Amino acid sequence: MRRSSRTVNVWPGYVDALSALLMVVIFVLLIFTLAQFLLRQVVSDQEFALDLLSNRLAEVSEALGLSEERAEALNAQVTLFSEQLAEVTDERDSLAAARDQDQLRLLALDALVASREEALAQEQALSAEQRDQVALLNLQIAALRTQLQEVAEALAAAERDKAEQAEEITDLGKRLNLALARQVNELERYRSEFFGRVKEALGENPDVRITGDRFVFQSELLFPSGEAALNPAGRAQLEQLAETLLEVAELIPDEVDWVLRIDGHTDPQPLREGHRYASNWELSTARALSVVEFLASRGLAPERMVAAGFGEHRPAVEGDDAAANRRNRRIEIKLTSP
């Protein structure tokens, strides 16, 4: 069997295939280029439209800003108009109130005019008898005025008498002051006599001292501790004092008013519980009364003596030691005016 010696040439097929493939690629590139052109055109159109929209948006925003400013201006005008309306309303109300008041005044004036007209009519209608009564009343008024004049003159006379009495009272006061001054001077003279004689009668006793215008007796000289009854030594001292006081009292004239003041004082130490006296005040008063009663028993007039107790409230010296307490426990006797 014979084999064919002819060979197959495939290159034309390859060339055709490559040509077809190249045409396809060129077509695809053409389509891609065309699509890119169209897409660029669309994008350009959209950018242009976007620019238009942006410009429009800016115009709208500007218009909106103008609208807001206009709205604010309108609101301000509305507020102003509201205030003006309120003022006009208030003014209208004020005018209405004034009108009402004027109407009330007009009514009152009408009523007053009516009453005056009525009174005038009544006055015109007075009878002769009523006129006589009016004349009589006028006479009575004149008489009352005369009486008032007389009363005024009497009051003036009373005022003059009062002034004269005031002058007399002033003069009497001056005379009384002079008399009191003379009595005080006389009392001072007898007080000096009293001091001299009492000092001479009591002698140099350390428990009796002179302080200012009074004699001061230490309580230990007159009383036991915490008691108001006089001890024997105290009675002896007061006996001498009573004799001297009686002698001085006889020298003082009756017109010179004087009293012997006896003051009791204690220290601030409290009394023991259950003591006879509830406080130092009571103890000082009881001691002053004991001295007064003793002097009265020796003949000194009771109306010439005054007793007072001060407790610890008027100390002679400040302090709370034994020496200060001893000086503060005392009886003071003073010749003075009432």
TrEMBL record:
Residues 211-338 form the OmpA-like domain. This is OmpA-like domain-containing protein. InterPro entries: Bact_OuterMem_StrucFunc, OmpA-like, OmpA-like_sf. One of its GO terms (cellular component) is membrane. The chain crosses the membrane at residues 20-39. It comes from Halochromatium salexigens (Chromatium salexigens). CDD domains: OmpA_C-like. The keyword Transmembrane applies. The lineage of its organism: Bacteria, Pseudomonadati, Pseudomonadota, Gammaproteobacteria, Chromatiales. Residues 57-91, 134-175 form a coiled coil.
